[in-house]
Design brief:
The structure holds 2 protein chains of 2 kinds.
Chain A lengths: L1 H7 L29 E2 L5 E5 L9 E2 L6 E2 L4 E4 L8 E2 L4 E10 L5 E9 L15 H10 L12 H11 L3 E6 L8 H8 L1 H15 L3 E7 L3 H10 L6 E6 L8 H9 L14 E5 H13 L5 E7 L7 E6 L4 H6 L8 E6 L6 E2 L13 E6 L17 H5 L6 H10 L2 H6 L10 H5 L6 H16 L1
Helix pairs in contact in A: 2-3, 2-5, 5-8, 11-14
Chain B lengths: L18 H23 L2 H23 L10 H11 L7 H16 L12 H12 L1 H4 L19 H6 L9 H6 L11 H14 L5 H17 L5 H8 L3 H8 L10 H21 L6 H18 L15
Classes of the chains: A alpha/beta, B mainly alpha.
């Protein structure tokens, strides 16, 4: 009877898969959800960062004055983890030097003045196999496009060596505002399936699940209608909850497997790749097209035309914003990434990187800074929402006292900084800020 | 020129729930029980409540000023402490005693430990415990329930008194107990209103069910066993005295109760059993206040022993 009532009020018949903890923030996805992917006009210049979060920074092989074409290699990897970096436009190299990066520091980057001579990438004739695909991915400069930017070829290599069973294609996109992956799911479904097949071949996994949150049910249905009948690739519907798109929480929800602390998904036989990454793999293998552009959600109330834009890597945020008609007087905060984990910008001459999922603008009112935080009242709300089941309140009380050793003992380093705790904290404590700081200090203490 | 931009560490959005919002909501939810009390015990009740609340707020401001701290009386926590203390006092208590109790609650119970978030014991209950020790006579002089009809005011006793001292008076029916037509402390009598308020807080997510259910459940079980298996003893036990007020509004105090779910269950069960033990064998007819204070003392220990098992960790860590 309960099930009948459940169905009658329009609830899904089966219980949606999910994980423990998490939050339901205001999503604001309606701002850009129905906006198809749209290329922005080429800017006057781009600044292509060579930075990658793992391994040595690739070495630039162009210098001032060189003429480059879109897709030409401008930097070479220096170790096994490194990937190639390509010019995203045709033009002239103006400078190779230090430029600001969204994460708040300076990195080596190449500034290219945009010229002419764009050529389409012709289809490739050969269909490569496993290890060869991994090499193509590396040559195409593909990194995790869901936000982390970890080199994809290196992840694939590890997965292949570990002999993973499952590939999870991550289309959860749980960050509020962001809809880039959703549009990719809807508009590039075939490429996504092709990319998924390539990733299966490259990693040696037997089956793939494409995971989508329940607020994107149309994408799930579309996938269901388009995947081949052989049951190798299957879409899965997950409960819409933040941070469902986090690797460990995704594995937990789809496969009920728990990645050991300090371990990798490969330890439980899983490889996770973002949907945009899968499409980039398709582009690289089918057209020899390196990762030189991506879909970025540009959203927020101070914009007249928020949307999902196809953007060249290295486009500066200030140029990107122009495409959406910003109300300049009402911009209070510019966030690169989503509002839960993204970085707030102090300047707008930072480039869109390969892992930039979105740019979110908050109005002056929305960006108002909380006056001050209060003492922890030990309400425990941070514990209930922590997807890593950490005693956040206790960790932060320890951090406040400067007791980093205790903070580490309580699990500081397992924190992935998803921000669920700080979102719910009624005392407005800057929990993520303390945890980030404490991680730096804890490292120093260890050394 | 680029606009002036705000900079902060993520997350850049937050829930609208804040400590002041929660405190003021609890205050609002408690008000109906106070109004009921005025009808039940007369208007003296109102002056006791006003004395406690005003003293709490003024004293908190004074102490924070003296300590050179930010004055935070607008966050509602002092108001709530004053109100809860008043609800735990006899309706016949002289105003000056109520004021002394509030001074102890705020100055010693709360600010001696460093203010909101740092106290070990529920401040309102510290105030009540002090008054019970200092003025036991005044604290146990009761008004009869006006709604129940005329009773001799001089010799009136609460239902728990009747049982404890085996008085010849008749007990109110369970229905009267539930609707609050009985004698007792100012805010504890009307179970119906307290329960409705508790359900509202539960719905808002301000409290969880664990402590009230564990508290009342274990108290009810204890009462049934102690009475030799009478089920109505369970209803009497949870409607009598301050069980409802204590379990929903005092034991769930964020600062002085455990943070983890397992910790809250242990805490609640401990409160229920200690209450039952004091009622059955103790010197006082009612034990809610001391039960909560005792379990407050155990809270840091419970917290340390009930840390959640971190995701991906094979074993639960114990933090000593």
């Amino acid at each position: 009877m309960f099930a009948a009532v459940w169905k009658a009020i329009g609830m899904p018949a089966t219980k949606l898969r999910s994980f423990m903890g998490g939050i339901h923030p205001l999503k604001r996805k309606e701002l850009t959800r129905e906006r198809p992917i749209e290329p922005i006009p080429l800017p006057g210049k781009v600044v292509i960062p060579l930075f990658q979060p793992a391994g040595k920074e690739p070495r630039p092989i162009v210098s001032k004055g060189d003429i480059v074409t879109a897709g030409q290699v401008i930097a070479e990897p220096q170790d096994g983890r490194g990937v190639f970096v390509h010019s995203s436009v045709c033009g002239k190299v103006k400078k190779v030097g230090r430029f600001p990066f969204p994460a708040g520091f300076f990195v080596t980057a190449a500034e290219v003045e945009v010229g002419e001579g764009e050529k389409p990438f012709p289809p490739m004739e050969r269909t490569p196999e496993g290890p060869e695909i991994i090499e193509i991915i590396r040559n195409a400069g593909i990194v995790g496009m869901g936000g982390a930017g970890f080199p994809t070829h290196f992840k694939l290599k590890g997965a292949r060596e570990a002999g993973v069973e499952f590939l999870l294609v991550n289309g959860a996109e749980c960050e509020p505002y962001l809809t880039a992956d959703y549009r990719v799911l809807m508009e590039r479904t075939e490429d996504l399936i092709s990319g998924t097949k390539l990733l299966l071949k490259a990693s040696g996994a037997k089956r793939a699940y494409v995971a989508v949150e329940s607020d994107k049910k149309d994408a799930y249905d579309r996938l269901g209608g388009m995947v081949p009948d052989d049951d190798v690739i299957k879409p899965v519907l997950l409960r819409a909850k933040y941070p469902q798109g986090s690797e460990k929480q995704l594995i937990e929800a789809v496969l009920k497997r728990e990645v050991p602390a300090g371990g990798l998904p490969a330890d439980v036989g899983v490889l996770v790749q973002n949907v945009s990454t899968a499409c980039a793999v398709h582009d690289a293998v089918a057209f020899g097209k390196p990762l030189i552009e991506r879909v970025v959600t540009l959203s927020g109330t101070p914009l007249k035309r928020p949307g999902n834009y196809l953007v060249r890597i290295g486009t500066l945020i200030e140029d990107l914003m122009e495409a959406a008609g910003p109300d300049r007087d009402n911009i209070g905060k510019v966030i690169v990434g989503g509002p839960m984990m993204g970085f707030s910008m102090s300047r707008l001459d930072v480039p869109v990187a390969r892992e930039t999922t979105g740019v979110v603008l908050l109005s002056r009112v929305e960006a108002e800074v909380e006056p001050s935080h209060q003492s922890c009242v030990r309400c425990g709300k941070c514990l209930y929402v922590c997807p890593m089941f950490l005693p956040t309140s206790e960790i932060c009380i320890a951090v406040e006292r400067g007791d980093y050793a205790l903070a580490v003992k309580l699990g500081l380093e397992n924190c992935m900084e998803c921000g669920s705790c700080a979102y719910v904290c009624p005392s407005r404590r800057p929990l993520v800020q303390w945890i980030k700081t404490a991680k730096l200090f804890a490292k120093k203490v260890k050394k | 020129m680029s606009p002036k931009l705000a900079i902060s560490i993520s997350p850049h959005i937050r829930t609208r729930e804040t400590v002041p919002r929660i405190m003021w909501t609890v205050v609002l939810v408690l008000l109906p029980a106070g109004i009921f009390s005025c009808l039940n015990f007369g208007w003296h009740v109102l002056s006791v409540i006003a004395a406690c609340v005003i003293t709490a707020v003024v004293l908190e401001a004074l102490i924070q000023k003296l300590r050179g701290k930010e004055i935070t009386i607008s966050d509602g926590s002092a108001v709530l402490t004053g109100l809860l203390l008043a609800y735990n006092l006899s309706p016949a208590l002289p105003i000056w005693m109520a004021i002394i109790g509030t001074v102890v609650a705020i100055a010693i119970g709360k600010h001696a430990f460093g203010g909101l978030g740092h106290n070990i014991w529920n401040p309102a209950l510290v105030g009540r415990a002090f008054l019970m020790a200092a003025y036991p006579g005044a604290m146990t002089t009761w008004f009869p329930s006006r709604l129940a009809g005329a009773v001799d005011a001089m010799t009136y006793a609460t239902p728990l008194n009747v049982i404890k001292q085996s008085l010849p008076q008749s007990l109110p029916s369970l229905g009267e107990m539930f609707f609050g037509i009985r004698g007792g402390c100012i805010g504890e009598t009307c179970c119906l209103l307290l329960l409705l308020g508790g359900l509202f807080l539960l719905w808002k997510g301000y409290i969880t069910w664990h402590i009230p259910v564990a508290f009342l459940g274990s108290l009810a079980c204890f009462a049934v066993i102690a009475s030799g298996g009478k089920p109505q003893a369970a209803v009497f036990a949870i409607c009598a005295g301050g069980a409802m007020l204590g379990s929903i509004y005092m034991a769930t105090d964020y600062v002085t109760s455990p943070v983890s779910v397992r910790g809250m269950l242990i805490f609640g069960i401990g409160c229920g059993i200690i209450t039952g033990v004091i009622r059955k064998w103790g010197g006082y007819p009612e034990g809610v206040c001391y039960a909560i204070l005792l379990m407050n003392s155990a809270t840091p220990l419970i917290d340390r022993l009930t840390l959640p098992r971190a995701y991906g960790e094979a074993k639960r860590k114990v933090w000593v």
